[in-house]
Write a structure and sequence with these properties.
Elements (H helix, E strand, L loop, with lengths): L2 H19 L3 H7 L5 E6 L6 H5 L6 E6 L9 H13 L4 E7 L3 H6 L8 H14 L1 H5 L4 H21 L2 H10 L3 E7 L6 E7 L15
Parallel strand pairs: 1-2, 1-3, 3-4
Antiparallel strand pairs: 4-5
The structure holds cobalt (II) ion (CO).
Length: about 210
């Protein structure tokens, strides 16, 4: 059996098992999607959103990209965000980074990765803006960890800069914005940053009528 055929075979076994455990499972899910969470995570295959949070299909709306970045010109992410906030009315958005992130490590080198350079530039900017603080941490691995946390916090702040979030905060008093980091070595999620609805940014980023 080829690897792709194996996936299809595993899928059939999984679907069979679900119906055995709960005969209404697919009928119920097909009717309505009402997740409470939007997850913005890294594309890394070792950080699967549902598995590490033990959530089921239907519980989490998911967007993943390299190094879990929130870029103000990314129409893909902005579309996911708009839909999750205004249509699904999610109550929590989680930006989840992870220690040992290949995207963050790549951004710290002077190597060119082709089209990826444009994407990773945003991480280099976070490094540059926080270089003095980061260099206070002498241990290289620890410094990488701090940068991963700073990148996550910056993405949460980027979410708060969007019209979508500022409007939802003003009109609906949601969602909460969370920055978490996942440890590949222990499987644990660590909260590193939180923006409650209505949190303040620098004045220049605040819209009067979002
Ligand atoms: Co990563």
């Amino acid at each position: 059996m080829s690897p792709d055929e194996k996936l299809l075979e595993q899928n059939r076994a999984w679907a069979r098992q679900q119906v055995q455990d709960d005969p209404e499972y697919f009928r119920r899910l097909a009717q309505l999607q009402r997740p409470e969470f939007l997850w913005i995570g890294c594309s890394d295959s070792r950080v699967p959103a549902n598995q590490i949070t033990a959530t089921l299909p239907g519980e989490m709306f998911v967007h993943r990209n390299i190094a879990n970045l929130v870029i103000s010109t990314d129409t893909n992410l902005l579309s996911v965000l708009e839909y999750a906030v205004t249509q699904l009315e999610v109550k929590h958005i989680i930006v989840c980074g992870h220690y040992g992130c290949g995207g963050v490590l790549a951004a710290l080198t002077n190597k060119s990765f082709g089209v990826l350079d444009t994407w990773l530039r945003h991480i280099k900017d976070v490094y540059r803006l926080n270089e003095a603080v980061l260099l206070q941490t002498k241990d290289e691995e620890e410094r990488h960890k701090r940068l991963v946390e700073l990148v996550v916090a910056t993405q949460v702040r980027n979410l708060a800069k969007t019209t979508v979030i500022q409007r939802a905060w003003k009109t609906a008093g949601r969602p909460h914005l969370h920055g978490w980091v996942y440890g590949l070595e222990n499987g644990l999620l660590k909260p590193v940053f939180h923006f409650a609805p209505g949190s303040k940014l620098e004045r220049i980023y605040m819209f009067d009528e979002p």
